[in-house]
Amino acid sequence: MTLTLPPRVTDRAFARLTEIAADAGNAVALRVGVDGGGCSGFQYDIRLDDPAPDDMVLEKNGQRVVIDQVSLPFLANAEIDFSEDLIGARFVINNPNASSSCGCGISFSM
What we know:
The protein is mainly beta and 110 residues long. It has a single domain, classed as Sandwich (Hypothetical Protein Aq_1857, Chain: A). Helix content is 13%, strand content 43%. The chain is built from one helix and nine strands, in the order βαββββββββ. It has one helix spanning 11-24; strands spanning 8-9, 29-36, 42-49, 56-60, 63-67, 79-85, 88-94, 100-101, 107-109. A hairpin with a 2-residue loop joins strand 4 (56-60) and strand 5 (63-67). The relative contact order is 0.27. Residues 9-105 form the Core domain. GO terms for molecular function: 2 iron, 2 sulfur cluster binding; 4 iron, 4 sulfur cluster binding; iron ion binding. This is Iron-sulfur cluster assembly accessory protein. It comes from Roseicitreum antarcticum.
């Protein structure tokens, strides 16, 4: 699997990170990773974390999204967004590499 284009982060996702940082009183980084598991084979790991030296860092207005090197190929061309709807608010991954995903949107297969 080759990385053709890095993942991109929407303005809405960066805006939500700005809100989180204001509530926390400091800058935060959103870590997006891929782990084995879940009901479809792979699952997203989305959490606030400190960047590691070898992470890819996507940054806008002082807010950062970090992705580890192992997860990058799984997230090629993906879009990291923030969604608010009747079921709640969350960061979501629109991943063109996923051949299927479960109903919760956290687990996928390739």
